[in-house]
Design goal:
This protein is α/β, with parallel strands linked by helices. It folds into two domains: 153 residues, Rossmann fold; 123 residues, 3-Layer(aba) Sandwich (Rossmann fold), CATH 3.40.50. The chain has eight helices and 16 strands. The strands form four sheets. The chain has a six-stranded parallel beta sheet with strand order 2-1-5-6-7-8, sandwiched between helices. It has a six-stranded parallel beta sheet with strand order 10-9-13-14-15-16, with helices on both faces. A hairpin with a 5-residue loop joins β3 and β4. The radius of gyration is 20 Å and the shape is globular. The termini are close together. The site of ribose-5-phosphate has 14 residues, from β13 and α6.
């Protein structure tokens, strides 16, 4: 098995190659044509071999690079192409909210799988998105990577900033053997949310080391409000942990100001990237495609 890392996921791709028993690893040669279009070429002897292509699609350029990479790998004669999209862009628009809108997640699934034999992604925003692929598709979880990090830190309590994260918080709570609860969240607009403690009885917050766990941190609005709420209720410390750290604009600095530490996995390049999903992605590849 060969592993090729796109420009958005080079380090993670190399980590995956190591987890696959030091599979040959490479990056494509790329340059820009005078009109700005991307040129790329993959090297190595890929003919008749299985190839893993790793590329998060945070930007439209990342997506285009992934599509070109997949085509290049097929043209190079790969036996099978396994496409790993650690952060799957456009996954939030998973249904038509208003007439005239596209179902962006679905159309991205269709295009990403075109030259793939299987797709692996990590913590998709919605459970339904995986079913939009017509080829084999698998979802790795960012929870084990974050649990590996949190096991080395003081943690008394897990908190999900919204009900959508209940299963995630429960799973982490099980792994760390700690209590958990979810906050009540009302989104005001894309930058602002209102958060409150749930009406149901919850574990005490005062003096506790709390971890706020989310799948993605985007503007940071949710985590900043959640951290402030926990501090108002006497939390002894607050850490923010997420699978996908987008940290738009000044999100990282704003979260840093109200938390003790920010942790994310390596699905996206960011300053909080401390744990890797490589073992979890490799485990799926080895389980599903052992030879
Ligand atoms: C919401 O469903 C997600 O789990 C995140 O809580 C949300 O996307 C975070 O966005 P932001 O950082 O912009 O508040």
């Amino acid at each position: 098995m060969h592993v090729i890392g796109g420009s958005a996921s080079t380090a993670l791709a190399e980590r995956i190659s190591r987890e696959l028993g030091n599979a040959p690893f490479g990056i494509p040669f790329t340059k820009r044509f005078p009109d700005g279009e991307l040129y790329l070429r993959v090297g190595g002897r890929l003919e008749g071999d299985d190839v893993v292509v790793v590329q998060s699609t945070r930007t439209d350029q990342d997506l285009l690079e992934l599509l070109l990479l997949e085509d290049a790998v097929r043209e190079a004669g790969a036996r099978r192409t396994f496409v790993v999209v650690p952060y799957f862009g456009y996954a939030r628009q998973d249904r038509r909210f208003f007439p005239g809108e596209p179902v962006s997640a679905r159309t991205l699934c269709r295009h990403v799988e075109l030259d793939a034999d299987a797709v692996i992604t990590v913590d998709l925003h919605s459970d339904q998105t995986l079913s939009q692929f017509s080829k084999p598709a698998f979802e790795a979880s960012g929870i084990p990577a974050l649990a590996r990090l949190l096991k080395e830190r003081p943690v008394d309590l897990l908190v999900s900033p919204d009900k959508g994260g209940i299963e995630r918080a429960k799973r982490m709570a099980q792994l760390l053997d700690r209590p958990w609860f979810a906050l009540e969240k009302k989104r005001i607009d894309s930058d602002h949310v209102e958060l409150s403690l749930p009406a149901t009885p919850i574990s005490p917050i005062a003096g506790k080391q709390v971890v706020l766990l989310d799948d993605v941190i985007t503007t940071g609005g949710t985590i900043v409000e959640a951290a402030r709420l926990l501090h108002r209720h006497g939390a002894g410390g607050v850490r923010a942990a997420c699978t996908h750290g987008l940290f738009l604009r000044d999100a990282f600095e704003r979260i840093k100001a109200v938390t003790d530490e920010i942790l994310s996995t390596d699905t996206l390049l960011n300053p909080a990237e401390k744990g890797s999903v490589a073992p979890d992605v490799a485990q799926i590849l080895l389980r599903e495609y052992p030879s």
